[in-house]
Amino acid sequence: MLGRLLRARYATLFLLAAIMIAVPYLAPSAFYLRVAAVVWVFALAALGLTILMGYAGQVSLGHAGFLGLGGYAVAIGPARFGLDPVLCLFLGAALAGALAFLVGRPILRLKGYYLAIATLGFGVILALVFHSESDWTGGPDGMAVARVTVFGTRLAGAATWYWVTAGALLIGAFLALNIEASPTGRALKALHDSEVAAAGAGIDVGRKKLAAFVIGAIYAAFAGGLLAAMNGLITPDAASFMHSIELVAMVIIGGLGSVLGAVVGAAFLVVLPQALTVLQEYEQAVLGLLIMVFMIFLPAGIVPTLRKWLLERLS
Amino acid sequence: MSLLAVEDLGISFGGVIAVDGVGFRVEPGQVFSIIGPNGAGKTTLFNLVTGIYTPHRGRVTMAGETLTGLAPHLLARRGMSRTFQNLQIFFRMTALENVMVGRHLSERTSLLSDLFGLPASSRQNRATRDAARVLLERVGLGAVADTLAGALPYGALKRLEIARALAAEPKVLLLDEPAAGCNAVETEAIDHLIADIAKSGVGVVLIEHDMKLVMKISDRVLVLAQGRRLAEGPPRDVRENPDVIAAYLGDHGAREADRAGA
Asked: Which residues form the signal peptide (chain B) (predicted)?
């Protein structure tokens, strides 16, 4: 029974929904809900990397750039053009997708380290643009984001945002799980293992990689837009290299290619720093140490390791 | 007009001529073997034909259509499949999933349908899975369908690659040492499999070191040495060709080939 459940496609979705319902009961304070909402948002961004890195095996060290793009779209659109913020959320995602499409074509010809450095450069450029185009972006201090109103209701308060972000993550997880089990997902996983053999089977490797890159960018931009709207503020820091690295770390710690892993990884890197603040100046050191310990003892990532352990115990 | 016509193919790497003006023709239902000592340029020739390398000169046509310089995935679309000498397996997938990837060209779903998990994608998945299962049975791997490819023995992986290549329903199938590292029983099975594939009308191009296998199942044999064509013809003629005996088989090899033929 449990074994079948572990293998069912949408089991992750039900587990995730169960956790989302349970959290407000277990931690009923605005602070905890806010932290959880940040987890859902970063998990959504990490899910894009799960598709790009986990399925297709292509690294991106500049993914926070797309996160920033989504955030600034939600900030600039309403402030400068009087557009609806919800519309801007989708516009930002479309813009990120289009940019990924343009940049991805030349960049994705590169492999391994070279791809890593190229995406890193791309992320740095975006962060630099957000930083220096102060007329548009407010410069290093960032800019305020207008409050979002949906059908006449203002989205405000930790609980509201908790459910909005949770819903977005569930949709993101649903799509990622669908892709994984589909012909497209199979093609992505195939080129991850052997590009030569994938091409030999008729898979247009370049196009599939590009599709994964564009989808990943759209995930990140949605997450960035939600983050900016929720915080009421966006700064160039959202697109920083540090955030790109964090996204990659979330995907790897949680378990490369695992949808639930992206969420667990996001929780790990969002919640732990909060919990470790009691250690004051040792916080960063202990966080780094914990990441090392987890990677040494659970190299496949938290979720795949647990899943394998459970399946072995059951059989 | 031949099914596959290779004309005057040539490539050099840093001044070293790896393949020098080699040509051959393959007809439907034929097993065409390429033999030659290590470094003779057999695999390079395969890589030229299948689009991994772009030839410096020469032409590849299939049923009259020029294919020279096309990317591998486009060649696959035109009916060319291959296996690899050094295995190119999707190790993180099960045996069945490996063959399912091979069905890629017959899959008709869109990215959006796949994203939203529409019924079209599920139906396609089922059709792909059923077709892949039949192919696994055909190469004798039905029992290990759900085993991770990474956990399968070498001989099974060789057959898995053949099943994956067949999944694309090729007109031309290029097999690069399908029996390498296989024991006598496995080689026998591959022998039957190749004959069976050819009988279905596929043109099979075979690189193989196992002379017994080559002499038994080939319709024609091309002998390469140092990137050049040394001889070509029916197995018997090639085996008795003095140039081949001298340059490739050597005295010892000639005796062995004789025994194999006897």
From this structure: none
CA distance A256 to A52: 10
CATH class for the region spanning A2-314: mainly alpha
- Are A201 and B107 in contact (CB < 8 Å)? no
Interface check for A175 against chain B (CB to CB < 8 A): the answer is: yes
Q: How confident is the model at residue B253 (pLDDT cuts 50, 70, 90)?
A: low
* pLDDT tens digits, one per residue of A128-153: 999 998 888 888 888 988 888 777 77
A47 at B interface, C-beta within 8 A: no
Q: Taking CB atoms and an 8 Å cutoff, what residues of chain B touch A179?
A: 114-115
Residue B262 has pLDDT above 50, yes or no: no
Domains and CATH numbers, chain B: 1-79+170-262 (3.40.50.300), 90-168 (no CATH)
* A315 inside 8 A of chain B by CB: no
* Residue A28 pLDDT class (50, 70, 90 cuts): confident
The C-alpha of B84 sits at a distance from chain A's nearest C-alpha, in angstroms, of: 8
Q: CA nearest B121 in A: which residue?
A: A182
The shortest CB-CB distance from B77 to any of A182, A196, A202 is to: A202
| A197 at interface of B, judged by CB pairs closer than 8 A | yes
Backbone angles phi, psi at A227, to 5 degrees: -60, -45
HSE-up of A216 (CA within 13 Å, CB side)? Answer: 35
**What are the tens digits of pLDDT across the range B62-107?**
999 999 989 999 999 999 999 998 899 999 999 999 999 999 999 9
The pLDDT assigned to A9 comes to: 79
Beta bridge partners of B206: B33, B175
Res. B261: pLDDT tops 70: no
Q: Do the Cβ atoms of B121 and A183 come within 8 Å?
A: yes
Output the pLDDT for position A8.
Answer: 76
Note the pLDDT of residue A154. Answer: 80
Q: Beta B65-66 vs B57-62: how paired, if at all?
A: antiparallel
Query: How far A194 CA sits from the closest chain B CA (Å)?
Result: 6
